[in-house]
Amino acid sequence: MDTLLQQVVNAISLGAIYSLFALGYSLVFSILGVLNLAHSAIFMSGAFFGVLAVNQLGTPLWLAFILAMVGAGLLSVTLEFVAFRPLRRRNAPRIAQLISSIGAAILIVNIGQLIFLQQFGRTEAYFPRELVSLDPIIIESLSIRIAPIRMIIVVVSLLLTILMQYLVGRTQIGQHMRAVAFNQQTAALLGINVSRIFVFAFFLAGVFGGAAGMFYGVVFLNVTPFIGEDVALIGLTAIVLGGMGSIQGAVLGGYLVAGLQVISVVLGGSSYRNAVVFLLLFAILLVRPQGLLGQSESTRA
Amino acid sequence: MKRSRIVLYLLIITSVALLPFVAMAQDEVATEDVQIGFWDECPAPENLPETVSIGAIFGLSGPISVYGGSQSQAVELALTEINESGYLGEGVTLVAITEDSAGDGEQAIAAMTKLVEEDQVVAVLGPTLSTEAFSADPVAQENGTSVMGVSNTAIGITDMGDYVFRDSLPESSVIPGTIAQATTILGLERVGVLYGNDDDFTLSGYDVFVQALEDNNIEIIGEETFARGDVDFNPQLTSLIAGEPDALVVSALAAEAVQIITQARALGYEGPIIGGNGLNSPAVLEQSGEASNGVIVGAAWNIANPAPLSVEFAMNFEEAYEAAPDQFAAQAYTGAWLYATAIRCADSVDRTEIRDALAAIQDFPSPLGLFSFAEDRNPIHDPVVQIAQDGKFAVLGAEE
Amino acid sequence: MDALINGLIEILKPIGITEPVFQFMLVNAILGVSIYLTLYCGLFSLANAGFMAIGAYVGVILTQSFDLPLFGALLGGMIAAGLIAIPIGIPTLRLRDIYLAIATIGFGEIVRIMILNFDDFVGSILTLVQGERVRFTLIEGARGIKGIPKLTESWHLILFLLILMFFLTRLHHSRLGRAMTAIRQDEIAAASMGINVVYVKNVVFIMSAILAGAAGVFSGHLTRIVTPQAFGFDKTVDILAFAVLGGTSTWFGPIVGGLVLTALPESLRFLKEYRGVFTGLVLLVVIVYLPGGLINTTSWSKFIRRFTNRPESPPDENSGHSTTRAN
Hints:
Structural class of chain C: mainly alpha
Oligomer: heterotrimer
Number of helices of chain C: 14
Order of helices and strands of chain A: HHHHEEEHHHHEHHH
Low-confidence stretches of chain A: 297-301
Number of strands of chain A: 4
Number of strands of chain C: 0
């Protein structure tokens, strides 16, 4: 049973990656009340800007991180102007905004393919292997091994959660964001510049998505235009399980999904690990559609 | 604006692609013995029109484009060489009409129909995936046009008809030899198996591995699966390694293989990792670094192959596209040369005559080695079993 | 009939539509109607790819293992998809927009994973029962069922679509059709008028599943191989795009959407690597600027007005109701 501890470590480091992805997803939902499926494309763009900075411009890692976050943030704001604002203008239902985000995701991934071809000659790129040490920290007494970068991600994702909580809960702009989330018309009457709040929320979500993509790229080295799609469904599951619009919920959901997957593997059912996750999703939706930590629809803010 | 950019892009690519060949052409005179092609066996053709078109169907968009893209580049490389060397006679140009199938069966059917019925190509290369081939190849068969898979490794591809060929060794010709050789040299008794179960390529690899392991009386102590796009294999690897296997047997594509190798090593596994065609990519060695020591791959072609034609192909490809070719590129390159040879030997653009000339090709010197088609239109050439040491592949057991 | 179809294809060939493309266009038109039915009723269900997979596998197994003709397989595939829709619909259709969407996406993924593992699963049960290792093969997991003859003909699809269109026109004047419209406009009001909302929603969901199943049977006998990879989330998004592009104010919209979006990538082959970007752009422009889809006069007139005299449209224009909505 000495692998059990190692599997716990595996679940935590996998969960950190999922929750990092789910955070940005959750932010847009809590402000807009809309699922932004283009978030996976923003995630991809972060990894892409990062790999571009490191490989083609030769920037140091910290600068690449900043470029990735700013680049993804700006792309996210562009999406707000192109894919969401025109629909909000005419009070389109939120399903229309969801569809619009799918369209935007398709377009970005296609543009991504073109740019990858132009920059790298093929639709994949690799971060240099020497960028971060992959040598594990070995704790003999417990017989576990931990990759340092994975632990950094666990810490970073927790810090980002707290930061986001603080931002939304304690700052003035956060209050404005919650006011807009509650009711746009009322917020406008209160003198809040609603458009600016939306731009800010999208920028913030883009920055988080970009950071998540960059981390993903640095850990797994391989970056393609499709890495967002690979985590999109799992990320979606994570925020639904945890509770849409709840920031702690997104993090909890990420760890929950990772935990379920690892438990399935431990029990000898690696082929069914995603089926287990989706079955739980199904069950949760039927019993408690607002998710584990989510508030019910009418009180969401 | 857009069109001008396309033109510019094409110009850059072609000029980059052509440059090395201007230089290479002179080198080739000095080393005549490494020239590819059937120069002596078939006389220079005389009855060909100015332009002969073949079709090519590769996955150029979507996740499959990593493979389809380099295949398409390899075909362009081969065509440049073929045309510059006057292989089809003076003034005859062989062109490829390349269509994207995006890894999708419906698009592959549409592309095949367009090439065979509308563009009237004399023969077709591709499609990239076996699943696409099962959809699209019957269209070529019904139209009496040869189609040659250059990366289809599934069972039963050439059973679709007498116009269906492939130059990609099926896993069943590669893996049994790999396992047998690894068993003799390493004395394997118990192994753990990790494979992708949602992908036709990795799943057929798994099927053959299991059969080969059974034949060699090797016990499988655990089987774990993953899905396409997975990046974290720690849970599965932890379970497998806990059983203390003599080797890990992995059926995966390059991107997943890199993660599997590095993560297995980070979990403290030091034994051999045995893989099939999918692990045979320059990216695997490059990206997994020291972790790749002890990785054993059986494959149709490997970049470390010291044969002159293979070395020359790898060098030319790297010069043209600034990336090392993988096995699928080598097979696409060979495929284009095989068609050129069939057209040269048939001295005709009649599809049936080209088919017959293609089927008759024996001992063709290619980067894959001396290449022949079997009776059932499957390829015959020796696979190589290699082991990674210090970031390079070396022949396992070093007997060959 | 054959001469008519061949003549039509001759006309369409210059824009890249060959017979197989034409057939896939018709299959996708059926899929468009399939998702239209649920959308029309205000149900944002994304289970269509899953039901299509069920139809395809049942249909193919019926023709391959039980030697049934295509017609029998078609019935079988439709019945199977419809039957499975009943236990799925009853609990999930209570969910509202996004939650229903996610639940049905989950359903699609579960179907795909079940197909991947079906043989192993049955095999391991048999192994337990018989006490020795049994290898069971029926649907071959990711390898797919291969070597399926191409039984679907263009006239099958045209006939099916004609019957479907007849059915749809009838539906709109039926009690059920009026109930659907009522639910779409206001669910609570519909319930208070005595419409059994739950019943109507479930019937519509089952009809939608049956159509997706039929499309699956046709598709499996066109592509000659069925693999679970073909019915993933990508396929769901494609199907949704048919309805969104064509518009869901009439049943004609999703049919046009299915036809156009299937033909477009083939017609655009000359664009080479810019093909995907162009298709994506068309889709996004329609979603954002033509909310009623291609087949909707009000949305076109708004679109034209927008680019002729650029009025400052007030944010609370009555658009939400008169132009059709995507849900």
